[in-house]
Write a structure and sequence with these properties.
5-stranded mixed barrel, mainly beta, 99 residues
Amino acid sequence: MPELIYGNVQFSFNARASINPEHERSQMSSEEPIEIEGTISTVLPGTMFRVKLDNQHEILAHLSGKMRKHFVRLTVGDRVRLEMSPYDLSKARITYRLR
């Protein structure tokens, strides 16, 4: 094993260790957003919405940047597609208005 000596401290490391892209992808898959659908129940100020999911939970959602950029208007009763972080299941981003 190669060693690096810096002052009185000795560091050992494996020179053949490399990053495995497959291993990184498998870890990142748990951080991908969860896509779900719901219905807007309340319109709040600042492009925020209260959305009722298909499983009857209510969450707080905001418009994605592309929807703000293209002035997509949403009203009560609209069906929307949402992206949720696996870390906070009470908030989401609205990514698409369904027909």
